Amino acid sequence: MIYIKFIALFLFLLPISVNAAQLKIAYVNAVKVIEEAPQAKQALAKLEAEFRPRDEKIVVTTNSVKEMEDKLNKDAKVMSSSKRRTLEKRLLILKRNLKRESQEFREDYNLRRNEELASLQKLVYRVIVDIARKGKYDLVVHEGTIYASKKIDITQKVLKRLQEKSN
Question: If 137 and its partner were Cys, which of 57, 80, 91, 132 is the partner (CB 3.0–4.6 Å)?
């Protein structure tokens, strides 16, 4: 009775294993592709150029706050109380503005970075699908893969195609 169940299970699984042997499978390290793609480097340079003026302004304001705090700490005892209060008030306003500008900067930068990343991810996806279709792959895996042999790894093909697209 046990042998009949074993044979039935074996016969049931036989067509699956025969079909699996005919599958063409590939692996791509999508994280590596996104990190090393020339488009990622271009996007980063674009973001840096776009946000550099605001970043420099924040650095200048931060330095001004520090200088004003140092002056207040150093000269507080010799200043008149009205001059000290005026300086403290200006310092408080400057700190509030700096905090607001810094927060807006981070939010805007993160938003733009996410936009650039989404655009890059779409491009990488299209390239992977194009390679899969042209290479007649049945399955392309990326995340959650424990092991993939070099024989099925198409990461370098994807990077090469992205390099070609960036020129």
Answer: 132
Domain ranges for the chain, please list them: 22-166
pLDDT-derived band at 20, boundaries 50, 70, 90? low
3-state secondary structure of 140: strand
CATH topology of domain 22-166: Protein Binding, DinI Protein; Chain A (3.30.910)
Residue 81 — very low, low, confident or very high, per pLDDT cuts 50/70/90? confident
- 157, with CB counted inside 10 A (0-12, 13-18, 19+), is middle
- In this prediction, residue 99 carries a pLDDT of 97
Q: What residues contact 137, with CB distance under 8 A and at least 6 apart?
A: 24, 25, 26, 131, 154
pTM above 0.85? Answer: no
Angle in degrees, CA 7, 11, 12, rounded to 5: 115
Structure tokens at 22: 């005919």
